[in-house]
Design brief:
The protein is mainly alpha-helical. The chain has helices spanning 2-14, 19-35, 40-52, 55-61, 68-80, 83-98, 112-122, 126-139, 147-167, 174-194, 196-206, 213-224, 232-235, 244-248, 252-261, 266-269, 279-284, 342-355, 357-365. Helix 5 runs antiparallel to helix 6, helix 7 (112-122) packs across helix 8 and helix 9 runs antiparallel to helix 10 (174-194). InterPro entries: ARM-type_fold, Hamartin. Residues 296-339 are annotated as: Disordered. One of its GO terms (cellular component) is TSC1-TSC2 complex.
Length: 366
């Protein structure tokens, strides 16, 4: 009991306004993590972060090393299983994967991945779904070999959520659907870029069914108009793109670049040349602290999610909200895609740029 009280006191000191105190307490926690190989301290830190969104605790959690990586993955998986903590757990996972830890290859074997996929196939909270899709999009280039085991899950998720974009369930606010549409568009690019033969086969099979034709015409077909013919559709095969040997020679950023090469969308294709989001686009998207889409991927103030991202909020998102005023929609860039609603174009540019910041930052350090 005394030890728990001591940990609680140290945790509260982590958020001290005095920098020297925070640094000293952080050092104490890291020393304890080095000497104690059990899960208790990691579990305590995760619980405290989920409750407080403490940035010093987040820093400790996102820099964990073996064997605590397994403890962290197991704890996040446990939290994913509870509806009350699912969004916060996804937020934490997003912060972790954005930093591409040296143990990122373990994501494909951890129980957390099936839990994430189950969430995206069954959850009905649009904010959880949007955040989860962005986590999946960022994770896929780190674990491309997971397609061999989970490919049908990836495609089922795309099919389900693209249908949501058309059906627009009555209980979901329009602006949340805008964010979901943007994330589904990004998922389309990722799946087509990584697994073109299998993905096109899925699209042909799934959208040839009469009940899915409207979704294809209204949601999927406009997405297809903004990609090139993938070379693998000519020279590759469904088996080849799932062969682990195909991925062994590629680093995470190589996979991202390959996905960007097949895009006709300037927001995607410019990333091939290492371009960052333009100042004009950044100015259109001031930071939204209470926006759950202000996940690790939608912090536009630091060019799409660097390590200094502001924590997630458990509150529901509002877009460019001014006290006393209703949420405002965003005016579109002059070069918006004619096949998309203006809000979708703006949000997609923001989301896609944000998705890639952690990767771009990583290239700059390599």
């Amino acid at each position: 009991m005394a030890q728990q009280a001591n940990i609680g006191e140290l945790l509260s000191m982590l958020d001290s306004p005095v920098l020297s105190v925070r640094d000293e307490v952080t050092a104490v926690f890291k020393e304890n993590l080095s000497s104690d190989r059990g899960p208790m301290l990691v579990n305590t830190l995760v619980d405290y972060y989920l409750e407080t969104n403490s940035q010093p605790v987040l820093h400790i959690l996102t820099t964990l090393q073996e064997p605590h990586d397994k403890h962290l993955l197991d704890k996040m998986n446990e939290c994913m299983g509870r509806a009350a903590s699912r969004l916060s757990a996804l937020s934490l996972l997003g912060h972790v994967i954005r930093l591409q830890p040296p143990w990122k290859h373990k994501f494909s074997q951890a129980p957390l991945l099936p839990s994430l996929l189950k969430c995206l196939k069954m959850d009905t909270d649009v904010i959880v779904l949007t955040t989860g899709v962005l986590v999946l999009i960022t994770m896929l280039p780190m674990i491309p070999q997971s397609g061999k085991q989970h490919l049908h899950d990836f495609f089922d998720i795309f099919g389900r959520l693209s249908s949501w974009c058309l059906k627009k369930p009555g209980h979901v606010t329009e602006i949340y659907l805008v964010h979901l549409h943007a994330s589904v568009y990004a998922l389309f690019h990722r799946l087509y870029g990584m697994y073109p033969c299998n993905f096109v086969s899925f699209l042909r099979s799934h959208y040839s069914m009469k009940e899915n034709l409207d979704t294809f015409e209204e949601v999927v077909r406009p997405m297809m108009e903004h990609v090139r013919i993938h070379p693998e559709l000519v020279t590759g095969s469904k088996d080849h793109e799932l062969d682990p040997r195909r991925w062994k020679r590629l680093e995470t950023h190589d996979v991202v670049i390959e996905c960007a090469k097949i895009s006709l969308d300037p927001a995607e294709a410019s990333y091939e040349d290492g371009d960052s989001v333009s100042p004009q686009v950044s100015a259109r998207f001031p930071h939204r602290a209470a926006d759950v889409a202000a996940s690790p991927y939608v912090d536009t103030q630091n060019s799409c999610g660097s390590a200094t991202s502001t924590p997630y909020s458990s509150s529901r998102p509002t877009l460019l909200n001014t006290p006393g005023q209703p949420p405002q929609t965003l005016s579109p860039p002059s070069t918006r895609l004619l096949t998309e609603p203006p809000q979708v174009r703006c949000e997609r540019v923001c989301l896609l740029a944000s998705l890639r910041a952690g990767e771009a930052d990583r290239w700059g350090r390599s």
